[in-house]
Design goal:
Helices cover 23% and strands 16% of the residues. It contains 24 helices and 35 strands. A seven-stranded mixed sheet has the order 5-4-24-23-22-6-7, covered by helices on one side. Strand 1 and strand 2 (29-35) form a beta hairpin. Helix 8 packs parallel to helix 14 (398-411) and helix 11 crosses helix 12 (343-358). The mean pLDDT is 95.
């Protein structure tokens, strides 16, 4: 009897459609296998520049996301009280006309009374443009809630930051140091990169209170006390300066270290750069001894240069820097206890960084020419790569901590050199190359410029003539001057308080503000339903768009149902958040690999429809007819300026199709689809490093439309914009801060990075334990916890406690504890974790769900054992007795200070369910089936 025949390679599809994943913000390329017109299987695209075929659990589980029972079916209008989840289905025409009837009168009378905020929206260049054409100053996206400290600190210091702006040099790094990196961001490239490092024998060090994910595979783990990363980093700087282990040549050529500072206390520019008649910073040339502009050909800037004018000495940034950080206050012995480390541990890490950077530099035989016209025979680099993310960013000292890390990178010459950190086009771009914020609304008119930007001083703040905030979130005010991504977490609280004013309509997209996308979750739910003395809602109208029946859906008055990511067009644009890698500028699309089987529409197309109905400029022609049929039409035909549109690939030139600049091409999307959904423009070999100063890169970037003219610049160790705000706090200048903020501005907005304790708001004796929340690699946002495959990995979340705390409380795995903060209380299950900072507890974020949401069974573990730390956090700091509202945010950028949370813990009698329970909301979608089957095969 013969062996049975087994088909070891069954045909799983009759067609493969290539598009871009949206199961996190990684934007990997995917092959969607189709069988009989349905999605059968999803795998990675081996040709894609981001993931090269690698796909994580989230990406593979996209099939479950696409078929989720929680998908919204049709437009909805609220019929019951806000928060009840009671709706009726209506037609799209009814929905759009309702929205227009609310939005049109506002635009004609008070456009600022529309607050339009988006969550993890990957089309912010489009949604921001829409809001600008409408005329409201109140637009921003998720960044102020997530990691604006990282982005803003990087751009103000180097012209770019980690992750979407930059990447480690995986091919050449010999030491890789991660600060506060969780597993959910950029996971596939980081996993691939760590694999390359391990294969070459490079060393990996993780600095994080929690040893999970990447830190678990690190060769060395530094279990730091939360919120003290900046103190550790500046102590490392102290050690390197004292040992003379810094890259003096790099600092002299490419940074503001040799720039002269005005040392005259009587001067209007005291503490700012000395400049020539053209406004260029001045340095002392070592060769001639003369004071010259920083970019003068042939000079050798002197790091120790100084001049004396009218009896006043003016020294360099480097001199000020050395004087600051060589202070004994930054010595390891002075900071170790606060960091939860030993002095020897800090010194050993500093020595390891120095050895990797200077004992075996990377040397590439690639000639290049710098911006002063000097020809270099080689590219020499320091093979120490750093990477950081939300862990160091989401503190009230996060901006300066991120700047401190960039200072460390620059001092050893490990940015844009072989082996260090490399920028991804269209970055690097200095802060001065970005727009400044615009916020002055005029009825019936577009805003006169982009909402978000990079202020250079007090004159750029979004303040009215009376000194009051022009934006509902108070972005770009004295409370948080450099809030480059806005403050999404403050919108609802400020609107309800009428501070700075009331709004009429809150318009949200993919922002689960009634649950895990808010600090103070229960408080926000109450605010969304709060009424005034007449019984009207304090926020009169709420429009919400989402693909799924989230917690936020129940609080909207009008629902505009979005598609899933496999049913839509999307544009991952060089104007926004592209998929570039250090060696290539790249962008991508999504396209409908399947058509919706519900009455839903892609949100961007809906916005264009609304814009045309409202008659917004740029969305209608002279006769008032729509300019664009839908978002796909916009992606192809819209131009921000001649030759520059949302997509860079396959544009029309004089001699045919070309990449970068060019006219719109009606077949552009077909070309993207044929190429796997992306376009990549590779940088020449001699232009791939030293980008801010390499004229080969500068010229290539101009040719491909990334900039209009070469713009070489110096890295800014000394941030002049911060000094300008400090001067205002000292009473200088026409635009002055309120008196109660002067000390904070002076102390926190220092031009050289500084460390100060987080504004935790809790008495450390009453609340001695740090509490953190992070996302797992298998989840993203709230979406993952509805996914039938991913729920098997993380069905509920325990609170992880260090061993000593477990023993001190007499706890065992599975016991329950009551966790109390200055703001609230939760009761949750615990598990012991050995590799954890001894004064820290943590949990996974967004696993817990509200009953009735996401089409989950009310008794699902996510709703009974799952929980949020959000219930313990407030968007405001505890009152100080001065009658003022103090945001729980970074004082520079306004980023939400999630990770400043402190708590106390006590053993509790196990309840039936995790507490608090917020009640069950009615779901506008049917209950999910007991069994979800989705299998397509012959």
């Amino acid at each position: 009897m013969g062996e049975p025949r087994v088909d070891t390679a069954p045909r799983i599809s009759d067609e493969v459609r290539k598009t871009t994943c949206y199961m996190c913000a990684c934007r990997c390329g995917i092959n969607v296998h189709m069988k009989s017109g349905k999605v059968a299987y999803i795998e990675g695209n081996r040709d894609h520049p981001v993931n090269k075929g690698v796909l994580c659990a989230k990406g593979s589980a996209g099939i479950m996301q696409h078929n989720s029972p929680a998908r919204l079916r049709a437009p909805l209008r609220r019929t019951g009280p806000r928060g009840s989840g009671e709706f009726e289905e209506i037609t799209w025409e009814e929905a759009l006309e309702t929205a227009v009837s609310w939005l049109k009168p506002l635009r004609e009378t008070a456009p600022e009374k529309l607050a339009f905020f988006t969550g993890r929206d990957q089309s912010q260049s489009f949604t921001g443009w829409w809001a600008q054409q409408y005329g409201t100053p109140n637009f921003a996206a998720h960044g102020g809630f997530c990691s604006v400290n990282m982005a803003a600190a990087g751009i103000y210091t180097m012209g770019g930051a980690f992750w979407e702006f930059g990447s480690p040099d995986w091919e050449h790094a010999k030491l890789f140091v991660l600060f506060g990196v969780a597993e959910d961001h950029d996971s596939n490239p980081i996993k691939m990169g760590i694999g390359k490092l391990k294969a070459r024998g490079a060393k990996i060090v993780g600095v994080n209170p929690v040893r999970s994910g990447y830190n678990a595979v690190a060769d060395d783990w530094v279990g730091i006390t939360p919120g003290t990363d900046g103190l550790l980093i500046l102590s490392l700087v102290h050690c390197l300066l004292k040992a003379g282990r810094i890259d003096l040549d790099y600092l002299s050529r490419f940074t503001d270290a040799p720039v002269l500072l005005d040392g005259d206390p009587r001067s209007d520019t005291h503490g700012l750069f000395l400049r020539d008649g053209e406004g260029k910073p001045l340095v002392v040339d070592r060769l001639s001894g003369k004071t010259v502009a920083f970019d003068t050909p042939g000079i050798r800037p002197d790091l120790a240069g100084h001049i004396r004018r009218a009896g006043v000495s003016h020294g360099t940034v480097m001199s000020r820097l050395a004087e600051t950080y060589l202070s004994d206050s930054y010595a390891p012995e002075a900071v170790a206890d606060r960091c939860g480390l030993t002095p020897a541990r800090i010194r050993a890490l500093a020595a390891e960084i120095a050895r990797a950077a200077f004992d075996a530099p990377v040397v590439l035989d690639r000639p290049w020419t710098d911006f002063r016209g000097e020809r270099h025979a080689q590219m020499i680099g320091r093979p120490v790569a750093f990477h950081a993310m939300r862990g160091i960013s989401a503190h009230s000292n996060g901006f300066q901590t991120c700047r401190a890390l960039h200072l460390l990178q620059i001092l050893i010459g490990a940015v844009e050199t072989p082996g260090g950190m490399r920028f991804k086009p269209p970055y690097p771009k200095p802060a001065t190359a970005h727009p400044k914020p615009h916020a002055q609304s005029v009825p019936g008119q577009p805003l006169n410029g982009p909402h978000l930007g990079y202020p250079q001083g007090p004159a750029d703040l979004a303040l009215g003539p009376d000194g009051k905030a022009l934006r509902i979130d108070k972005a770009f005010t004295w409370e948080n001057p450099l809030s480059a991504h806005g403050l999404m977490h403050m919108v609802i609280s400020n609107a309800v308080a009428g501070d700075p004013y009331r709004i009429d309509t809150l318009f949200l997209y993919m922002a689960n503000m009634a649950w895990n996308s808010s600090m103070n979750t229960q408080g926000v739910m109450e605010m969304l339903t709060r009424t005034d003395d007449s019984g009207d809602y304090v926020i009169p109208r709420i429009i919400y768009s989402d693909a799924y029946s989230s917690e936020m859906v129940a609080y909207a008055d009008l629902i505009l149902p979005d598609t899933t990511y496999l049913e839509r067009h999307d544009c991952i644009s060089l104007l926004d958040r592209p998929i570039s890698e250090p060696g290539a500028a790249a962008d991508a699309i999504r396209w409908p690999v399947v058509e919706p089987d519900r009455d839903v529409r892609g949100f961007q197309s809906v916005l264009l429809d609304l814009g045309a109905r409202l008659g917004l400029p740029g969305m209608v022609d002279d006769a008032g007819a729509p300019l664009y049929d839908d978002y796909a039409d916009y992606m192809v035909n819209h131009e921000r300026k001649p030759g520059i549109g949302p997509l860079s690939g396959w544009r029309l030139g004089k001699n045919g199709l070309q990449h970068g600049r060019g006219d719109p091409n009606g077949g552009q999307l077909d070309s993207y689809i044929a190429n796997g959904g992306f376009n990549a423009m590779h940088i020449p070999v001699d232009a791939q490093y030293f980008k801010p100063w390499n004229m080969g890169y500068q010229d290539w970037a101009v040719e491909h439309g990334l900039m209009d003219a070469p713009t070489p610049y110096l890295f800014t160790l000394y941030a002049e914009p911060l000094r300008r705000f400090q001067r205002a706090a000292e009473g200088k200048g026409d635009v002055q801060p309120p008196d109660h903020l002067r000390d904070r501005i002076r102390d926190c907005l220092t031009p050289l990075p500084v460390w100060y304790p987080p504004f935790d708001g809790g008495d450390t004796a009453d609340f001695p334990i740090h509490a953190l929340t992070q996302r797992p690699m298998a989840m993203y946002h709230s979406w993952g916890s509805q996914n039938a495959w991913l729920r098997q990995i993380h069905g509920h979340n325990p609170l992880y406690l260090p061993t000593a705390l477990m023993q001190a409380q007499g706890l065992h795995d599975g016991d329950w504890v009551r966790v109390t903060s200055p703001h609230g209380e939760i009761t949750v299950p615990v598990l012991e974790m050995v590799a954890l900072n001894p004064n820290t507890v943590w949990t996974w974020n967004a696993i817990g769900k509200r009953k009735g949401a996401w089409a989950l069974d009310p008794d699902a573990p996510e709703a009974t054992k799952g929980f949020l730390l959000n219930h313990l956090i407030h968007e405001l700091l505890p009152p100080k007795g001065d009658g003022l509202r103090w945001s729980n945010s970074d004082p520079v950028t306004g980023q939400a200070a999630w990770f400043d949370l402190r708590v106390r813990i006590a053993k509790a009698t196990p309840p039936q369910e995790a507490r608090p329970q917020t009640g069950r909301q009615t779901s506008p979608v049917p209950p999910s089936p007991d069994t979800l089957r989705w299998q397509v095969r012959d």
